[in-house]
């Protein structure tokens, strides 16, 4: 599994850096989690020591300062672990893979303890915005298909009993979290909340199932594709069949596009989406090596250190000069 993850990480990193015309310098799989855009992975951590406690644990590619809010999971600096370790930690499904050990912590697949992490995702965003629930523009929960059986494998009998006993609750717990989110979001009125989850065709599928086509039976990948396509084309969100999946998808797409347009209008968009920053290129400027997060920050620098006019005060000639300096000072990753 480590080799497979490393191969994917390595190939994707090469593609990104080729686009940026940068040479690959790190060894395959050595890319660190905190070098990527804002990503969070939920795992279940077992902190070694005299008192062993298993709790949901957030592996973040960004810093999360302690704020003292509800459900604030392990705040602190970004995790600079190799990506393959993070991938192993968040996919260490019991009875399939051993726990991933990083430092003094052992990790299980987050799905074992939080099969539906909607609450965790919601509170992470709210806590990152100092308790502001309005920061959630859209919460989209994507399930892995409704199941009536345990998807965990048999094995390691000393552990398997507790795993299988707990696994029986996962499907119902996942639905309970969804029902709680519907109520909490006031059916999408408090904040947009949606869940997509294939209802039919996957109920008997095991986590490690991989069958070849035989007779009239589809292979596993085709079965997944067929069930998902059927759900997206003709499925309904509710048992009463009043809301179609197609309508759900249109609503989701509209909200995503509107949120993207709103973010794109912000001065921070270039920094967040593209990693673009700015620097002063005026000769003899003693702050020429200081990166400015946005073009507005660079303009403020011009005002403070070079006595230039602000956007609402400058003449057309000054504006052209400043805009040329901003273009010249653009720093791409």
Q: Could you list some keywords that capture this structure?
A:
10 helices, alpha+beta, 333 residues, 4-stranded antiparallel β-sheet, two-stranded parallel sheet
Topology:
Blueprint: H1 2-19, E1 40-47, E2 53-60, H2 83-90, E3 100-102, E4 105-109, H3 110-113, H4 118-128, E5 139-142, H5 157-184, E6 193-196, H6 220-234, H7 245-264, H8 269-274, E7 277-278, H9 295-306, H10 316-328, E8 330-331
Parallel strand pairs: 5-6
Antiparallel strand pairs: 1-2, 1-4, 3-4, 7-8
Helix pairs in contact: 1-2
Give structural notes.
- The chain is of the alpha+beta class.
- It is built from ten helices and eight strands.
- It has helices spanning 2-19, 83-90, 110-113, 118-128, 157-184, 220-234, 245-264, 269-274, 295-306, 316-328; strands spanning 40-47, 53-60, 100-102, 105-109, 139-142, 193-196, 277-278, 330-331.
- A four-stranded antiparallel sheet has the order 2-1-4-3.
- A hairpin with a 5-residue loop joins β1 (40-47) and β2.
- The protein is globular and about 75 Å long.
- The two termini are 31 Å apart.
């Amino acid at each position: 599994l480590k080799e497979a993850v490393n191969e994917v990480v390595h190939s994707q990193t090469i593609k990104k850096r080729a686009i940026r015309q940068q040479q690959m310098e790190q060894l395959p799989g050595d890319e660190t989690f905190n070098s990527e855009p804002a990503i969070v992975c939920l795992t279940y951590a077992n902190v070694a020591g005299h008192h062993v406690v298993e709790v949901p644990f957030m592996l973040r590619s960004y810093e999360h300062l302690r704020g003292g809010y509800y459900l604030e999971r392990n705040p602190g600096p970004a995790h600079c672990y190799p990506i393959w370790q993070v991938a192993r930690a968040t996919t260490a499904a019991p009875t399939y893979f051993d726990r991933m050990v990083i430092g003094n912590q052992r990790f299980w697949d987050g799905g074992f303890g939080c099969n539906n992490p909607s609450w965790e995702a919601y509170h992470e965003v709210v806590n990152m915005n100092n308790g502001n629930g309005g920061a959630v523009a859209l919460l989209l929960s994507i399930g892995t298909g409704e199941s009536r059986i345990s998807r965990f494998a048999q094995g390691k009998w000393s552990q398997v009993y507790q795993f299988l006993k707990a696994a029986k609750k996962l499907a119902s717990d996942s639905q309970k979290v969804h029902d709680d989110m519907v109520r909490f979001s006031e059916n999408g009125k408090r904040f947009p909340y949606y869940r997509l989850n294939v209802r039919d065709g996957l109920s008997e599928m095991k986590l490690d199932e991989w069958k070849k086509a035989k007779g009239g039976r589809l292979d596993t990948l085709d079965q997944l594709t067929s069930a998902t396509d059927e759900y997206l084309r003709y499925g309904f969100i509710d048992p009463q069949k009043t809301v179609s999946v197609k309508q759900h998808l249109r609503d989701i797409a509209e909200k995503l596009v509107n949120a993207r347009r709103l973010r794109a209008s912000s001065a921070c968009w270039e920094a967040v989406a593209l990693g673009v920053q700015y620097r002063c290129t005026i000769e003899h400027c003693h702050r020429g090596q200081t990166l400015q997060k946005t073009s507005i920050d660079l303009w403020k620098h011009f005002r403070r250190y070079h006595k230039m006019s602000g956007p609402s005060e400058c003449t057309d000639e000054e504006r052209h000069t400043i805009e040329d300096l901003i273009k010249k000072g653009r720093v791409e990753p």
